[in-house]
Structures are given as structure tokens and as C-alpha cells.
């Protein structure tokens, strides 16, 4: 019964116009540098998201290069996905990690979201995604495990897309839990640890 309900919802979503959806997720592994916290915007390419993608690609800024998510050079994923760094990129090692492991992980996360049905396969050529990417600058100072970094970014991307497409968290959940959810860094500030 649950599978039938999910399939019906996916078919409905495949016919629905998706103007602009937003989502975010946090996935962490044991090393602190592995945290992935993407923020995504998803929408039709002939709407505000598509225009934003064109503007991002056409308006390159030193230290904040925007690139398509790719499986490898010459293999761009669908839906078209642009990644934008939240950190100013000024280091070759950081650039290679961001435009290597993280870029590939985001591409796989997008395809995972399609495979899971969060993005209808029928909409793969009609939608665009903008992913704002966090990569801890300390990755240039430590020995990193690229498998861990890949896994956290892949999972976080798929999770953020899923949340965006399901409009999660819902306003009802937010209102019910507003005073139960503590912002981690705000709490550190209150405790005098910042």
C-alpha cells in the first residue's frame, strides 16, 4: 500500500510545475572536516531557477567559481546542477578537493535523488538545481579520507534534494518544534565557547 501511495505521489509530481523549492541537510562523519551541509534550490529551467543558473555560470567571480556537477569531465548530470562554494577558494589543494571529490559526490547525490523518485525521471531535463556547498577549509591541513568526504557529500546532497521536493520540514512540524530545536553555534555562544 505504501509503495502504491509513493508511486501515485511521484506521478503527480512528474506532471506538476516546480517553480522553486528549497532544502538543506547536514551529514557528518567522525572527522569534523567531513561535514557536508548543502543548501539547494530546485525549479524549472524556464523559470527563476533556470535564469539563476544562467546568471551564475555567466557571472564567474574569482574565488567563487560556479561549475556544473559532473560524474567526470564530459559527463554532466541531469537535472542540470550548478555548485557554488560557500567558502572563498584560494588554494590549489582546496580547489582540487572541491572540484574533484565533492563535485563527483554532488553529481552522484543528484542521481540518487532521481533514482529514489524524489525528482521524477520525467523532469530530469526540465529542472535545474543550485547547490551551495560547504567544504571545511581545514581539509587542506589534514590527511583526509576521500571516501568519507565523498559519502557525506553524496548523502547530504540527496537528502537536501529530497527534503526540498517534499517541502520538509513542514510548517506544522516547525511550529510544534520551534522551541525544542537548538542552533548548535548559538548554544556554543550561550555557553561561552565561541
From TrEMBL:
Gene Ontology terms describing biological process: carbohydrate biosynthetic process
Location of the Formaldehyde-activating enzyme domain: 22-185
Keywords annotated in UniProt: Lyase
GO molecular-function terms, A-Z: carbon-nitrogen lyase activity
Pfam families noted in UniProt: Fae
Stretches of the chain forming a coiled coil according to its record: none
Superkingdom of the source species: Bacteria
Name of the protein: Formaldehyde-activating enzyme
Protein's organism: Planctomicrobium piriforme
Amino acid at each position: 500500500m505504501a509503495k502504491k501511495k509513493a508511486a501515485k505521489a511521484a506521478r503527480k509530481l512528474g506532471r506538476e510545475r516546480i517553480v522553486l523549492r528549497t532544502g538543506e541537510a547536514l551529514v557528518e562523519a567522525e572527522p569534523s572536516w567531513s561535514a557536508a551541509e548543502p543548501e539547494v534550490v530546485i525549479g524549472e529551467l524556464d523559470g527563476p531557477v533556470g535564469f539563476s543558473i544562467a546568471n551564475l555560470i555567466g557571472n564567474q567571480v574569482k574565488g567563487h567559481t560556479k561549475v556544473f556537477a559532473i560524474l567526470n569531465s564530459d559527463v554532466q548530470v541531469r537535472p542540470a546542477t550548478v555548485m557554488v562554494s560557500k567558502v572563498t577558494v584560494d588554494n590549489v589543494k582546496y580547489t582540487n578537493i572541491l572540484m574533484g571529490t565533492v563535485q563527483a559526490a554532488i553529481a552522484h547525490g543528484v542521481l540518487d535523488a532521481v533514482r529514489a523518485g524524489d525528482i521524477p525521471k520525467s523532469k530530469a531535463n526540465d529542472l535545474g538545481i543550485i547547490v551551495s556547498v560547504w567544504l571545511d577549509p581545514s581539509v587542506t591541513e589534514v590527511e583526509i579520507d576521500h571516501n568519507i568526504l565523498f559519502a557525506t557529500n553524496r548523502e547530504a546532497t540527496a537528502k537536501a534534494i529530497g527534503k526540498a521536493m517534499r517541502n520538509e520540514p513542514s510548517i506544522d512540524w516547525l511550529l510544534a518544534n520551534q522551541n525544542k530545536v537548538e542552533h548548535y553555534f548559538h548554544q556554543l555562544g550561550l555557553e561561552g565557547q565561541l
